[in-house]
Amino acid sequence: MKRIAVFIPLAIFAGFAVALWLGLSNDPTHIPSVLIDKPMPPFELAPVVPGQRGLSHADLKGRVSLVNVFGSWCGVCTEEHPTLMKLAANRTIAIYGIDWKDTPADGAKWLAEHGDPYIRVGNDETGRTALDLGVTGAPETFVVDRNGKVRYKQIGAITDTVWHDTLAPLVAKLEAER
Amino acid sequence: MNRRILLKILAALVLVQGLAVQAAFAVLPDEMLPDAGQEARAVALSKNLRCVVCQNQNIDDSAAPIARDMRLLLRERIAAGDTDDKAVAYLVQRYGNYVLLKPPFQTDTILLWISPFAVLAIAAIGFFVSIRNRRSIATGKPLSASERQQLERLLNATPKSGSGTPKS
Fold first, then answer.
1. So what's the pLDDT on residue A62?
2. Of the ranges B79-83, B96-100, B131-135, which one carries the lowest mean pLDDT score?
3. Nearest residue of chain A to residue B92 (CA atoms)
4. 8 Å CB contact of A134 and B70
5. What are phi and psi of B26, to 5 degrees?
6. Are strands A121-124 and A94-100 parallel, antiparallel or unpaired?
7. How confident is the model at residue B17 (pLDDT cuts 50, 70, 90)?
8. How many Å apart are CA B92 and CA A102, to the nearest integer?
9. Which chain A residues contact residue B98 at CB under 8 A?
């Protein structure tokens, strides 16, 4: 018994070491969203492209969709964009855009340059809606179910891998829900 | 000639100093509330709110655009008449407890708060148990006859030739 007791501190240390070691693989920039399983907070955004319609939380009901937060100033968004273009071209999923901390003119120019995969884009120049959504950076993408509830937040770019491994299975699951 | 160079260096130093001072204040004048009391409350609350992109900085110190947005939102709530708790809760509602530099004491943070005290208690218990064991060894029963003999033998054993303390 006493022999074993000698090893208790070592065991405690080992437990801490393993827990902290595992903690190292957590990405501290991935702040868990408090919106998960909650309805999208109400917002009403002006259009980016003149003549088109803006974006409101009410638009997100009826089908499973992605709400992508981007900005013309955001480099990673440019890297992510081809994947979104592909998803839109294949009609894989409805994608909405929030042009964050950007002038409508810059946003429209960026969309003209890189293509527009969004069904609707709203301009959030003040960043107020992004605050309501708990956005910490761009790109960020919310997966919204057909009832307008947020089910997942992708922090960082949607690459082809992220789509296939994480988002596509989730979207399929949400689409199967009634 | 020398004086001109000296003046130039001095001017450069003043400029650098000015920039440094500017960088030290993230809160820009246009953000501040006109009411000094409300502004002081906002600053005090900002110091306990975490900037969500520069995570070990509070929003009062951070020059990140999103920290500025958070400061403005906080001031908006205070100007609207929110209490300190309500204004902070408004941000927590959006970003979660993550924005609080001091995590609240609640069910999912119990481990975080009590584990240092638990470890201390375990260590204290271990310490006292080992002290007690040691004392019981010291005041234990006297040596048995065979143990006494063994001790005697060890004490009287003469070192073999060649060993022993080295001579200087």
1. 92
2. B131-135
3. A34
4. no
5. -80, -30
6. parallel
7. low
8. 25
9. 31-32
End-to-end CA distance of chain A: 58
Which of B68, B98, B101, B128 best tests the A interface by mutation, with the highest count of A CBs <10 A? B98
pTM: 0.74
For residue range A77-108, list pLDDT tens digits in order: 999 999 999 999 999 999 999 999 999 999 99
The span from the CA of B72 to the CA of B56, in Å, is 20
Task: State whether A136 and B95 contact (CB < 8 Å).
Answer: yes
A152 touches A36 (CB < 8 A): yes
Task: Answer yes or no: are the C-beta atoms of A128 and A134 closer than 8 Å.
Answer: no
Q: And the tokens for A106?
A: 């810059």
Q: Rounded to whole angstroms, how far apart are CA atoms A140 and A101?
A: 14
Which tokens sit at A136?
């910490």
CA A91 from centre of chain: 19
Q: What is the DSSP string of chain B?
A: -HHHHHHHHHHHHHHHHHHHHHHH--S-GGGS-SSHHHHHHHHHHHTTBB-SSSTTSBTTT---HHHHHHHHHHHHHHHTT--HHHHHHHHHHHH-GGGBSS---SGGGHHHHHHHHHHHHHHHHHHHHHHHHHHHHHTSPPPPHHHHHHHHHHHHPPPPTT-SSPP-
What amino acid occupies position B99? V
Instruction: Give the HSE-up count for residue A29: Cα atoms under 13 Å, Cβ half-sphere.
Output: 11
- Which parts of A31-163 are beta strand (E)? 38-39, 44-47, 55-56, 65-70, 94-100, 121-124, 140-144, 149-155
* pLDDT given for residue A143 in this prediction: 96
Whose structure tokens read 């974006």? A55
What does the pLDDT look like over A95-143, one tens digit per residue?
999 999 999 999 999 999 999 999 999 999 999 999 999 998 889 999 9
